[in-house]
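Ticket #4471: structure output looks truncated?

Reporter: J.K.
Steps to reproduce: submitted the chain below (143 residues) through the standard prediction queue, then opened the result file.
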Amino acid sequence: MKINVKKTQPQLYSVTLGDTVHTLGINDLKTLVLESVKVLAPGALPGPSIDIIINILATRLHASKEADLQEFILHAHENELLLLLKSTETNTGLHKKMFDNMSTRKHTILSEDLQYKFQNGIDGDRLNSAISKLSDLADKYSL
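Returned output as attached by the reporter:
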């Protein structure tokens, strides 16, 4: 199969795959290359840092509707919520919104656990796993 890429104009490229020619902008071409690398060499590209992923998740949760957030909190594992809250301790807006949308019992338990757990820090693998699961759950509830 004939495969060819040519720059036709600034920010515009002609990609030939066999007998088909596609015109792609720079961003689409970058996406094509990145997606190809992900398939051909998994793990070759660094993903976003855990801090960025946490920030994105926190932003999504803070911007969510109350009913959706309540559903998210109801289905999230308590230890995963605790890791999220611990890793976003300085985000008082997120904490207020989350605590306002959970039961008094859950609020009390999580608040107390935040004070006493993780005194020796947060295990990176546990945090990565928890944030991944919570991100998937947020996707499920379209947050």
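Triage note (M.O.): checked the attachment and the full token line is present. The chain has a mean pLDDT of 93.
Status: closed, working as intended.
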